[in-house]
Fold this sequence. Notes:
The protein is an alpha/beta fold. Among the domains are: 284-437, Rossmann fold, CATH 3.40.50; 459-632, Rossmann fold, CATH 3.40.50. It contains 29 helices and 13 strands. The strands form two sheets. The chain has a seven-stranded parallel sheet with strand order 3-2-1-4-5-6-7, covered by helices on one side. It has a six-stranded parallel sheet with strand order 10-9-8-11-12-13, with helices on both faces. Helix 1 runs antiparallel to helix 2 and helix 4 (57-70) packs antiparallel against helix 5.
Amino acid sequence: MSQSESIKSIINLGVEQYNSGDFPTAIETYQSGLVLEENNPLLHYNLGLVFQKIGRSKQAISAYQKSLELKADNAQAYNNIGVIWVQEGKLDLALSAFRQAILIDNNYIEVYSSIGQVLEKTARIEQAIIIYKRALDINIGHAPTHNHLGLAYHKTGQFDLAIDSFRQAIIIWPEYAGAYSNLGVSLKEQENLEEALECYEKALQLEPDQPEANSNKGKLLLEIGETDSALYFYDKATHFAPNDHTIRSNMLFASLHSSEITPQTLAERHQKWGKTYPPSSTEDRTRLMDRDTLSIGYVSPDFRQHAWASFIEPILANHNLDNRNNFDVFCYSQVNDKDNITSRFKSMADHWRDISHLSDQQAADMIVEDKIDILVDLSGHTADNRLRMFNLKPAPIQAILGHYQSTTGLKTMDYRLTDCWVDPPDTANLYDEKLIYLDYGTLCYDPPNLAPPIQPPPSEQNGYITFCSFNRLTKVNCQVIALWAKVLKAVPDSILMMKDRWFSQKFVRNKFYDSFLSHGIEPNRLNLISTVESYQDHLNLYNQADIALDPFPCNGQTTSCEGLWMGLPVLTWSGNRCSQRFGNSLLSRLELRELIATDKSEYVVKAISVAKNREIRKFLRADLRQQMRQKICDGSTFVQQLENSYRKMVSVHLQSN
């Protein structure tokens, strides 16, 4: 057999081994071929394919580059190098490789899609849309490009165009599960929930193990209060995509809302997530210096119109009030859709960094360059978080403010800033972080400037008690409904007013009517509101209620503060987990322990008591705002304690190093 025939046989054998999943043997086969003919470009290229498949990126790139030295017109090699650079977060290098591929083959449509995705990752979505359209000029029948175009339109809020693109992808490829799932997401944004659910179900019929469809269905079900069903789909999604950070974080957030998951299991779920991403320390590049001025970095996707913004503003507004400028404040913003709140927060920070378009490594490098002493996370496992970046340890000390209701699961997160009501000392074993207690409390609320005047209790005029909850339906599971139904039964003629955007959907309203009816509560005792015109109108709804009911196992935070600010007694059940003790924290600080129940029975008894006590309800309406100003809304005292805690962290760190 001639050498050329031997090389051909080796290549064919390597391909068979690759296709059968025998990657180590395929590597040996190709390497044996290179012993015979070291300058064979196809052998180097195929070897690159195997290395790329098994995650040996450096060796894959080296093999592709050697192949290109021998045969420079291999567009696929450049494309594959670009794909690896994307995975490594080196997006500029990726774009360069993709453009080389296009120069070789101007009709390589998959590369156009890859370029578009990189442009999206670097916040150049309008350019990405142009690239996708150019690709469709080459091949209008390429379903994946229609899908990518739809995703880009969705990110820019052009949901009609997104829906058209996804539908076009489905027309071309009727079994395109990913397009059905994405179509569902855009339909949901247009408040077409029933059709969105149908799309997720169709996607799962076509591809039951598709992580995104399982996750998207779980998210929708969670938002309408179907906690157990939501977790079923989230658990499936994480099973099929164990390394997908977003899906796993969404699952952890959903887990907070289940009474069926014990606090220990909840902690273990978070810790399992942390073990998925081993720490990759930059400790050799970070060093805490003993100096008068500390650099504090706050990381959040919520520097915008968001429920947590009212807890972030007191922090940014109250640093360095003693005019000593002992704290240099950096904000690392993960905000994708910036608004006037973003601009206000930006004006409060000493330094503003937009990291929304940066990879974790790039963001970490920026933080190292800024010489941050203490890096503070303000989001936990909520949407668009950057917790994986904390795993790179870009600051000598890292902490999370206790708004999030569990451990992060990260060994690189040193501290959790909390209070003794939310996280009693005997719960320390549930956290990877060391607990640091703020005497003032873990939350400091910035009350709305445009809050309407407090009106007399509505029961004074109408003769019956109105309970309310304006928490998202995410927090209103079947157990909450069962308990609130007992409250309504125990207080004759009372009604319950609830507000959530998804009450715009008839099937969601009917679901809640049916759920309460199964516990003996007629629909005419429920007032289900979807939206109001303004935030002031939202606050004014509290004037139409007598008593606010706190859900469980996830208590209200912003809604509870709103209710208290509007003079309402908030009835809470303090339970066995952090998420069910935020009400306890707020009411204990206000010295209103008579509103804190310790079990379901006491919750009903206290609801009856407050409903009968006309004088206490009138007194709270007159007194609560002043109490809130002192005990919940004093940003100066709160941040002074925060700054003292930062100094203690630094002292401990310097002593131990």
